[in-house]
From TrEMBL:
The lineage of its organism: Archaea, Methanobacteriati, Methanobacteriota, Thermococci, Thermococcales. InterPro entries: AAA+_ATPase, ATPase_dyneun-rel_AAA, Methyl-DNA_Rec/Restrict_Enz, P-loop_NTPase. This is Restriction endonuclease. Residues 407-607 form the AAA+ ATPase domain. SMART domains: AAA.
Length: 716
């Protein structure tokens, strides 16, 4: 099973960087391109004054050195980014056209640019996997290029038209997938051209001289066409489909055929795992998965069961998903998939990426069958200490959380109230320590500090360990080599601490005896943003970095201020925290803390209420309607979670339960959110009859209430 893990930390870092750079000017992300190696992602930024800049980020979210300030695009017309392995080509269509090829790893990419200019604007430009520049243009077009750039010119046909869909190359050959049209008849062809290219003296000689591997008289019609070529061990296969179509055409050395899909095509690309396809069902979901080469060769119809690692990427809305905003790495492990919006500017219309949705995913296969978070190379079952996560496939949030914990060790779950943040944390972290931060919570409660105790009828102060320190000591002790562990099954905490102190002293002195984690330990911090986090964590914030934990390359062992005892964080201690986005305090988190935590957003999920009806009122539609009002006026951070309504169907009287939830939980929030704006609320949403023009709740009896809710759900 493949897990689609949204890389929210990376996207958060990219968006935060761009906000800092361009937030004062107003900007959109006009395009993004994932590099085929999965290491980088290129971002084209468009400002409100229509100036544009290109940045390159690592897929971890950090800007690549030399690209921090952005490279200006000196062209107001279309700009197309063409990623290679370690270079980025940018084709701009101003005047006669220009391609600028930049090295990705460079302290000053602008100074090392390789420009290619033309005497007439080409029809098509491609940058191949081996970083050759393929140009499809009129036979008479000339180009001017530095000697370091290999340019291959494909002439337009002398008689008829050709449309190139994909280009791939090897050391000695170039492969083209194209549609050829002549005398109103079309054919799809896959051709091979030896390199260096044979000399031709006219476009007719070129098209007569190439080797056609396969062709088909059935050609996709209409819409944006999506094609790709796969080369391996001397064999070649190509596929072509149309956005919104329900079939793809496959051509190769074995012949040509048409294959039906289980939905409307959104995107396709070959990877080492097979053909990656995204399809959508109108009114349903976006589904993606890999189709093996064996299935492609033998089947004429692809069913959902033929997808390997099928995943759901959200609801299918044809108008906001476009193959232009999609890409997958060659190894099939990194997916870029965006949703678009549109904007008019200067008399022209252009599409841009909506920044509030996910658009970078890791497609991970589980490394541990049980879903345990044990470090690779250990076997908790062998030690009798493993525990399983139940229902991983039931909730995508658990899958995301497990992957992020394995990688970053600590995660903050954030989102509107009622989305199940605490429930998800406790479901993932079995037998966890649980604390809630608040204004009076302190370092002394969490780590260590002086506490009064009564001794010989006197009050004296002694250093007491807090909940986090006690948990860390138990986790380190559980990981100690046998030579440091004390005998006995039921060890007291003080005995464990003495063994841990002895180990840390030798560790600091240079003894590198490896630790052996046997179990996972968790602490869940609820409402982490309500406490003074810097005050509570103190010097421990440094230890949160995964590379500073015990056993890591740059492990850090500190001396605590009260007890003067040594302390470190082990690799088998995981932190899950929650926070409400409606508090508007996420932006106020300490930057150092943000860097050390991964973030997982939980949004309201009305689909959890699908087919749940109370006296003719569909709760999925009700929650969607309420949240559309709130989001329109206040923003998504203030929406209501599905948890408000989950218990209603199982109540003895669902009608009365819905009445109580709506009047005593939902409407008080509306009074807070729309204070002083009641006339605006009622004028925009005439179906909302529960608050009058002065902001007072209108109390109805049960039957009147149900009728009013029906009108609210049914109103447009």
């Amino acid at each position: 099973m493949i897990r689609p893990v949204p890389v929210k930390t990376s996207m958060y870092l990219i968006n935060r960087f761009l906000d800092a750079e361009y937030g004062d000017f107003g900007f959109v992300i006009e395009d993004m391109k994932l590099f085929p190696n999965g290491k980088y992602i290129a971002v084209l930024v468009r400002l409100d004054d229509d100036s544009r800049f290109i940045h390159v980020f690592g897929t971890g979210g950090q800007p690549v050195g030399g690209w921090e300030k952005g490279l200006p695009v000196p062209c107001a017309d279309e700009a197309i980014m063409l990623p290679g392995e370690e270079k980025l080509a940018v084709f701009t269509k101003c005047g006669t056209g220009e391609v600028r090829i930049y090295p990705v790893q460079s302290a000053d990419p602008e100074s090392e640019v390789l420009p290619v200019n033309f005497t007439r604007l080409p029809f098509y430009v491609s940058f191949t996997p081996r970083e050759r520049l393929v140009v499809f243009c009129d036979y008479k077009v000339e180009y001017f290029a530095p000697g370091e750039v290999e340019v291959i010119k494909i002439p337009t046909p002398q008689d008829g038209f050709a449309y190139i869909h994909s280009v791939k190359d090897t050391d000695d050959s170039l492969y083209l997938l194209y549609t050829f049209r002549k005398n109103q008849r079309q054919r799809l062809e896959l051709a091979k051209i030896p390199l260096p290219m044979f000399p031709y003296y006219s476009s007719l000689e070129f098209w007569d001289g190439i080797e056609v591997i396969s062709k088909s008289s059935i050609v996709p019609r209409g819409g944006r066409q999506i094609g790709d070529i796969w080369l391996k061990d001397g064999s070649v296969m190509a596929t072509l489909g149309t956005k919104g179509g329900n079939e793809v055409h496959i051509v190769g050395s074995a012949g040509a055929k048409t294959v039906l899909l289980p939905g409307e095509l959104v995107f396709l690309s070959f990877t080492s795992r097979g053909l990656f396809v995204i399809t959508g069902v109108y009114g349903g979901n976006l589904r993606a998965g890999f189709i093996s080469f064996d299935v492609l060769n033998t089947s004429k119809k692809i069913g959902a069961e033929d997808f390997q690692g099928e995943v759901v990427l959200g609801r299918y809305v044809p108008g906001v998903v476009d193959p232009k905003f999609a890409g997958i790495s060659r190894d099939g492990e990194t997916l870029y998939f965006g949703r678009s919006g549109g904007k008019s500017s200067g008399g022209t219309f252009y599409y841009f990426l909506r920044r509030e949705v996910d658009y970078l995913y890791l497609l991970e296969a589980p490394k541990v069958q049980s879903g345990d978070l044990e470090p690779e190379g250990t076997a908790s079952e062998a030690h009798g200490g493993g525990h399983q996560k139940e229902g991983l496939d039931e909730n995508l949030g658990e899958t995301v959380l497990i992957s992020l914990l394995r990688r970053f060790k600590q995660v903050i779950i954030y989102g509107p109230p009622g989305t199940g943040k605490t429930h998800l944390a406790l479901k993932t972290a079995k037998n966890a320590e649980f604390v809630t931060f608040h204004q009076s919570y302190s370092y002394e409660d969490f780590v260590e500090g002086f506490r009064p105790i009564e001794k010989e009828e006197k009050v004296v102060y002694t250093v007491s360990d807090g909940v986090f320190k006690r948990l860390a000591v138990r986790a380190i002790y559980d990981s100690l080599p046998d030579g440091f562990r004390r005998r006995g099954e039921n060890m007291e905490y003080e005995d464990m601490k003495m063994a841990v102190q002895e180990f840390l002293k030798k560790r600091r002195a240079g003894d590198k005896t490896p630790i052996v984690p046997r179990r996972e330990f968790y602490i869940v911090i609820d409402e982490i943003n309500r406490g003074n986090i810097s005050r509570i964590l103190g010097e421990l914030i440094t230890l949160l970095d995964p590379d500073k934990r015990l056993g890591a390359p740059t492990e850090v062992i500190v001396t605590l201020p009260y007890s003067r005892e040594l302390f470190a964080l082990p690799p088998n201690l995981y932190i899950i925290a929650t926070m409400n986005s409606a508090d508007r305090s996420i932006a106020l988190l300490d930057i150092a803390l943000r860097r050390r935590f991964a973030f997982v957003e939980l949004s309201p999920d009305p689909e959890k209420l699908r087919d749940v009806n109370v006296d003719g009122i569909n709760l999925e539609h009700l929650l969607t309607r309420i949240n559309s009002i709130i989001e329109q006026e206040k923003g998504k951070d203030y929406t209501l979670g599905h948890g408000y309504f989950l218990d209603i169907p199982s109540a003895d009287d669902p009608r009365q339960a819905l009445y109580m939830v709506f009047y005593h939980k939902v409407l008080p929030l509306f009074q807070e959110y729309f204070y002083g704006n009641w006339e605006h609320l009622r004028s925009l949403y005439p179906g909302f009859e529960f608050i009058d023009e002065r902001g007072r709740i209108i109390w109805m009896d049960l039957d009147e209430f149900i009728d009013a809710l029906r009108r609210l759900v049914g109103s447009e």
